[in-house]
Every structure is written in C-alpha cells, then in structure tokens.
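For this section, I looked closely at the sequence of one protein beside the tokens encoding its backbone, which the following lines show:
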Amino acid sequence: MDNKVLIIAEAGVNHNGDESKALALVDAAVLAGVDVVKFQTFKAENLVTATAKQASYQSKNIGKVESQLQMLKRLELSFGAHQRVKAYCDACGIAYLSTAFDDESLAFLVEELNLKQLKIPSGELTNAPFVLAHALTGCQLILSTGMATLSEVKKALEVIAFGLLQSRGKMLASAPNSAAFSQAFHSELGQRLLQEQVTLLHCSTEYPTPAHHVNMLAMDSLKNEFLLAVGYSDHSQGITIPIATVARGAKVIEKHFTLDRNLPGPDHRASLEPDELSAMVKAIREVESAFGDGIKQPTATECQNMVAARKSLVAASDIKQGDVFTKENLAIKRPGNGMSPDKYWALLGKSSVRDYQAGDLLTE
C-alpha cells in the first residue's frame, strides 16, 4: 500500500435488495471519487438461524421488530446480481469489493469473481474457521476490529498467519490448533506475511457511533501492538471523524453511504448521502496532500518570503567608522537580506569598519 489513503465507500446493503439501486450506488461512488465501492455478499439462510433477533439499532432504524432472517432476506443480492454489479464497476473504472458472511459466499467471491482482496467484518473476527478460510485464499485482507479486545485481535491474527503460511505451502503438516496458530504468528515469515497482506481497521460497532465512543487512539494501540497498517471503519455521523483519523495516520477509510438517508433499512441513518461522500473524499485528499515528506525545511515559496518576513541588524543611528557597536546604536528590523540578528551579541563592543547612516543594513 502506498501513501495514498484507500477510501472505501461501503454500500453494504443500502441497495435494499434492489440491483438497480446497487448500480446507482456505484455511480454515486464513482462521482465522489472513492477508490473502492464495497457490498455485502451472503445467503441469509446460511448466515442466521430462524430465531436470531435483530440488533437493537436494526429494529430502531427499520421501525419494526422482526427476525434477522426476515430482514436479511429482503436485503440479499443474488450471486448473479453481484456478478453484474462487479462487471459494472469494472466498466466504470472503480474497484469492487464485497464482504462475505458465509463460506459459500466467500468461495463465490474468490473463485467466481476472482477478488484479490477480502474484507473480514467485525462480527466474524472471533469466527476462527471463517477467518482461516479467508487467509487460506492468500488474498490481501482487511480485518475490522469492532467489539474486539487486543487479545481477540491477536488470536485472529494468529489464525491468519497460519492460513497465509499454508497458502504459501508452509506448515502443511500442521493441523489447525492454537499451538500451530501461535507458532505461525511468532515466526519470521508469518510476521512478514501479516505485514505484507493485512490491514487492521479500528471500528466501533454502533450505528451511529457517537463521537465519545469513537476512541480514535485505539488505532495507535493496534499499530503499536501489531506493527501493521491501520485504518478506520467509521459509523459516526458526518465526515469529521474519518477526516481526523486520516490526520491521525489511518491508511484506509471505510464509510457507509446511501442514496437517501431516509430510505428504510438498518444502515441508512448512519450513512453519508452522495454529496457528503464527495465532501469527505475532497477533505481527505486535502489532508493527505498536507502530509508532505516530513523533512523540516523551507518550501520554495517560503524562500521567496524570507527577505520580507525576516529581519536584519541595522543602524539605529548614524555610526562612524571606529564607533563601538552598542545596544543604543543597533536595531533589528526588516528586511531580512542583511546580517542575521543572531550576530547581535558578537557585534556588541566591536568597532565599526565603515560609516552607516540610520536605517542602513549592517554588512560586517
């Protein structure tokens, strides 16, 4: 990953199961200038039991209580629809990404859509067999860490290290178990593969997330603990927080967006509308351009301003050759193309080698 922040527009299920809305979301993402538009791929019956209840924010945002299965069936896009959406993304010149929530959907994304990058959502972080299935693909991985502790993130990374080594033909004799996972994580090659292929996203699984629950500094904890690239998956309202996290060092920003925040569905209220998404992208690119190279030195424009902005040693009154420089006959004034004021103390008590009129720049 280069120094450019990767901006992922999370369409998620904000198409409400309507393929035409999914294509419209692609159009909005392209217009906003994001790098990636991301969806969610699942078969509802593979994902939840018939009795699984909604999260409280889901029933609140939808305006009714129903089972997760009922809700997800309405939000599901067929594999065929995902193929067409990806083809449309390819034609529009924007990267397509999707989060799989079951093994069949993961296989579809890798084997049918040939994705080279995968996103593991926060809710699957403790689902070790599913995390391993992602790692065994050998793809680039983005791991969201909402609801997780550092120890849970480490366990997931141990599983990923094991899977990445397996995908490279290493540790083939090892069966998946905690000891093998730990060994993989602590191996030199395991660490290198994690650094090359895994990005961690700090996240708060709350829709919307109030600012005082964002805990932005947790990005630093993730980076310092695991030495991996970090980013932020944002569920706050507005664009202030994702912009701030870029200034804090986020390498990836993921943000939900929708065509209309008033549409029915679980995620619309915590999503940006298209004009807001465009504003976020513009602001992030401006912050990004302000990073520079980190070398503390004047820019070319600053060099042009030095004469006007800096000061020089000048004669405060007429000074004759042989007169002694004193606090009374020396002054410090603009412009800055004369003797530097840092020579002031060295000059005091010395005799002038020439005549100066009041206001002349000193040259000795």
Notes: The chain has two domains: 6-289, 300-347. The two ends are 54 Å apart (CA to CA). Strands lie at 6-12, 36-41, 95-100, 117-120, 140-144, 198-203, 229-234, 252-256, 312-315, 330-333. DSSP finds 15 helices and ten strands in the chain.
